[in-house]
Every structure is written in structure tokens, then in C-alpha cells.
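Form P-L/3: holo structure prediction, ligand magnesium ion.
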Amino acid sequence: MIPKSHPRYESLILRERLVKGMRDGIVALEGLIAHGRGETFDYLIGERTMPYALEAERTAVATLLLASRPIISVNGNTAVLVASEISKLSEILSAPIEVNLFHRTEERLQKIVEHLKKHGAKKVLGMKGDARIPGLEHERGKCDREGIFSSDVVLVPLEDGDRCEALIKMGKEVIAIDLNPFSRTARTATITIVDNVVRAIPNMVKMAEEMKELKKEELKEIKNNYDNKEILKRCIEEIINHLQGEMEK
Ligand code: ATP
Ligand code: MG
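OUTPUT (holo model):
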């Protein structure tokens, strides 16, 4: 048991959940490494949601609300970190969830689907794997025809750069959640949310509840005012400022 008084309590709890998820066959071993990289960048941004991330989250929600076939792609890490919240987001946005894995095995897929359903997800796709994302080799390119393949907007927390690029090449709008503003994913996505999924998804649930009442025109305006390059630039500037502040402490 981690004592609540531990100064890194929150972070240690997340690690514990990832490790349990790995033991339960939901998280891939590589997922633990990815989480570690995420932790590093979270330190650099001060482990909080910054204004540029809020702006990206708001634009992401507007884009998902405007989409005709939105979809939420979920992997093992996302499933153990935010299963209930992502299920809620899926319901509010009427965007189905598809389990889509970088390290795909049928067993892990099945386990993640069950885990999400246990946490309130109604419709979970991903088991069929009856279509392919062009440009990716066999297992990595598998997806569902009625899901990611025919979607127009994909929300992909923690995606790999290659796959993000392949989705963009298919003409989709890709919303990535990635703590690393330098990753290929962050650079390639249509909208990059540089925030931890454990903060970003609950933020987006709240926003979606409010924003679903907005008119299409208002949602379009939010989208039109967004510039992803500018967001990443502000993020890097904030990291520099934050580090400067740390240096002067
Ligand atoms: P890319 O393929 O995009 O160039 P990469 O190869 O460096 O990136 P991957 O292992 O493909 O990294 O993807 C994992 C990404 O997920 C990392 O950039 C990491 O920062 C991010 N990440 C890990 N945990 C979280 C989290 N909890 N919230 C948000 N992002 C996270
Ligand atoms: Mg990668």
C-alpha cells in the first residue's frame, strides 16, 4: 500500500494501476515504457493542465461534436487509466470506442473490451479487424471496417507516430493526447493535446456536457480559431519558463 502522505502519491498510484494492468494482461510490457516517457514530460510541464492544453481539449470536443463518424481509439494504457471516463465521453459524444493495439493480440483485445464494458462502455469495436490502415504492416494496420476505417475523426490517446501519420494520410482528422510535444504523433496530429490522459479525458467529459448544447456555427468557430503549430510552440515555451522557474528556486 502506498501511504497517502507520500509526496508522489498520485504518480505512484498510476504506476501501480499500470503494473496491475500488465499483470492482468491488459497493458503490454512496452506500455510501461511508454508510461515512463509520459511521466518525464509530465514533470516538465508541471503535472497540470496548461491553458494551451485546455484550448486543444476544447477544440477536440468541438471537432468530435461536428464529426459525422467520430471514434475513440483505446489501447491498454488508456483502458487501465481512464476506463469509466472514456466510456462516459463515448456516450456523450455518441462516438463508439474501438480497441486498437500497437502490440495486437486477440487475447489482450478481448481483455480490454471486457474491462471497458465492466466500466460502463456500451459499444466496443475492435475484435473484427476486418479492414486495414494502408501503409502499416499486417497486425499493426488492422482495424474495424465499421469503426476506425470509416471514421472521419479519430481520438487517439497515446498513439504511435507512424500510425498517426497513416490515419492522416487516409484523410482523417486525428486528435492525439500525448505528453511529449516533440513526438512524431504530436507533430503530425490535427489537434495535439499535450496533457496526461488522466486529466485530459475528465476535462473533455465536462466540456462535452456543456458544449453539446452549442450551435454548429459556434463549434465551427472554435475549430477555425485553432492552430496546432501555435499550440505546440506555446507548450515548448511553457516548458522553458517552467524549467527557468525551477532553476531559480
Ligand atoms: P512517436 O511514435 O509519436 O514519435 P514515441 O515513439 O516516442 O512517439 P510511443 O511509445 O510511440 O512514443 O508513444 C507513447 C507516447 O505516449 C509517448 O510520447 C508518451 O509521452 C505518451 N504518454 C505516455 N503516457 C501518457 C499519459 N498518461 N498521458 C499522455 N501521454 C502519455
Ligand atoms: Mg512511437
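COMMENT: The pocket of adenosine-5'-triphosphate (ligand 1) is lined by residues 34-35, 37-38, 41, 81, 158, 160-161, 177-180, 183-185, 196-197 (CB under 6 Å).
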